[in-house]
Amino acid sequence: DAGITQSPRHKVTETGTPVTLRCHQTENHRYMYWYRQDPGHGLRLIHYSYGVKDTDKGEVSDGYSVSRSKTEDFLLTLESATSSQTSVYFCAIGGGSGGTDTQYFGPGTRLTVL
Amino acid sequence: QQQVKQSPQSLIVQKGGISIINCAYENTAFDYFPWYQQFPGKGPALLIAIRPDVSEKKEGRFTISFNKSAKQFSLHIMDSQPGDSATYFCAASGVGNAGNMLTFGGGTRLMVKP
């Protein structure tokens, strides 16, 4: 998985609780991304980062926030989890030697909101 | 709105046959078209990618065909094997895209029967 780890790998939480997912890379890639994957929707971009402390919104950013205080770490926070945020979340990195367009994905985090 | 439309949603092919998955895009600014392969419980992995300056790219049994005027591209898997059974996603990104963001199709679940 190209030096990308995600934690936790599985999480079950209750509606209204805050949740933070972590993505850690050892590849020193400039760009980091958070996607969610739902049946029939492919992967949809939530937020992305183009450098330390530089982030921007993606297609489905409502209800999510992100932070990147170090090159290697990108955090995704659900401030108050809802059942509609039950999904599989993937982190990706890009901007390395494979070319700025190439993205490499982590193993994913399965989140269930009850 | 879905800027990349992928078909079919599912595909069953006999071992040794040809698997064909099609994608159509709307944004003429797209200039990078990758295909990702995903096995259950894993993150998507880059399979093959093409830019619009060529009409075809081949890597082993996998070929991308690209039709710029029709705004369509397709993945052909020759001599399909049971080990190719996975979900395949097409994607696109474009010029002026500050974060090199990918827009994904909805995915195709391929099953190759022995």
List keywords for this structure.
heterodimer, A: 114 residues, mainly beta, 7-stranded mixed beta sheet, 4-stranded antiparallel beta sheet, B: 114 residues, 5-stranded antiparallel beta sheet
Mean pLDDT of chain A: 92
Question: What is the terminal separation of chain A in angstroms?
Answer: 29 Å
The sequence of SSEs of chain A as H and E is EEEEEEEEEEE
The H-and-E topology of chain B, N to C, reads as EEEEEEEEEEE
Percent range for β-strand residues of chain A: over 45%
The helix content of chain A, as a percent range, equals under 10%
Q: Structural class of the helices, strands and pairings of chain A?
A: mainly beta
Task: Give the CA-based shape of chain A.
Answer: globular
Low-pLDDT ranges of chain A: none
Number of distinct beta strands of chain A? 11
Main sheet specs of chain A: 7 strands, mixed
- Structural class of chain B, please? mainly beta
Describe this structure in words.
The complex is a heterodimer of chains A (114) and B (114). Helix content of chain A is 0%, strand content 63%. Chain A has 114 residues and is mainly β. The model of chain A has no long low-confidence stretch (mean pLDDT 92). In chain A, strands 2, 4, 5, 6, 9, 10 and 11 form a seven-stranded mixed beta sheet that branches. A four-stranded antiparallel beta sheet of chain A has the order 1-3-8-7, with no helix packed on it. In chain A, a hairpin with a 3-residue loop joins strand 4 and strand 5 (42-51). Chain A has strands at 4-7, 10-13, 19-25, 31-38, 42-51, 54-57, 64-70, 73-78, 87-96, 99-105, 109-113. Chain A is globular. Chain B is an all-beta fold. Chain B has strands at 4-7, 10-14, 19-25, 30-38, 45-50, 56-59, 62-67, 72-77, 86-94, 103-104, 108-113. In chain B, a hairpin with a 4-residue loop joins strand 7 (62-67) and strand 8. The termini of chain B are far apart. In chain B, 33% of the residues are buried. The mean pLDDT of chain B is 92. The interface between A and B is medium-sized, with 27 and 25 residues.
